[in-house]
Amino acid sequence: MSASSTPVSVAVVYHSGYGHTAVLAENIAKGVADAGETPVLLKIESAAQDFSAIIEAVGKADAVVFGAPTYMGDVSAPFKAFADASSQAFFTGAWKDKLAAGFTNSHSFAGDKAHALNSLSILAAQH
Fold first, then answer.
1. Across the strands, what pairs with 42?
2. Per-residue confidence at 5, pLDDT binned at 50, 70, 90?
């Protein structure tokens, strides 16, 4: 548990096209809970959804972990749509100074997961 005895909330925002990223997100949430903190799983369903509730939940969390599959060398389109929509939080500084992390996976050995991880890192740094 955190030093203040108040559980830290960790938002885990992810898109999972085939279920593999969801497994990782769920295990991260389990690790957060096992450490005595509060995980908040936030699944991105589609690129066309309203991301307001997810963006607000990340704003309320103490930390955020971004997760997306690597498709064609970068994060999935639904995750990218979420990232673009997060500009509303950027303009208000809602996610400023949050601890952030990210993860990706790919079926292909040549999927360039490093580029996808870099995209997640840049998203965090923008905020």
1. 13
2. confident
